Amino acid sequence: MRWILHWIVSAISLGIVVYIVPGFHVDGIGTLFIVALLLGIVNATLGLVLKVLTFPLVVLTLGIFWFVINALMIEFVSKLVKGFSVSSFGAAFVGAIVLALVNTVMKWLMPKEDER
Questions:
Q1: By the 8 A CB rule, do 109 and 4 touch?
Q2: Is residue 86 packed enough to be buried (19+ CB in 10 Å), middle (13-18) or exposed (0-12)?
Q3: pTM of the entire structure?
C-alpha cells in the first residue's frame, strides 16, 4: 500500500513539474502515471549505477551533478514514453531540480510509517 502512495505522490509531483517548467509536455494523466512509474524504475536501476560511478564528480560539485544525472534520466524516459516530451536538456535540468524539491515537500507531508 505504501508503494502505491509513493507512486501517486511521484505522479502528482511530476504533474506539478509539467505545469511549472516550460518545455515539459504530457498528453494525459494516464501517461503521467506511466512516466512516474518508469522514472522510478529507471532511477532505481540505471540512475543508481550512474550515481555510484560518478560519485567523485558529485563530491567535487557538492551534489549538483546528481541533478545532471536526474535530468538525463528524465530525458531517457521521455524517449521511451510516447506522450511525454522534454524540449531540451536545460528544461530537463530545471525539471530535475523542481521535481526534487516538490518530491521532498510532498513526501515530508505524507504520514510516517508509525503514524498509521
A1: no
A2: buried
A3: 0.88
> Are the CB atoms for 35 and 7 separated by under 8 Å?
no
pLDDT digits (tens, 9 = 90+) for 29-83: 999 999 999 999 999 999 889 989 999 999 999 999 999 999 999 999 999 999 9
- CA 2, CA 35: separation in Å to the nearest integer? 19
Q: Where are the chain's structural domains? A: 2-115
**Residue 99 to residues 1, 55, 60, 88: CA-CA distances in angstroms?**
23, 21, 23, 16
Instruction: Map grid coordinates 551534489 to a residue.
Output: 63
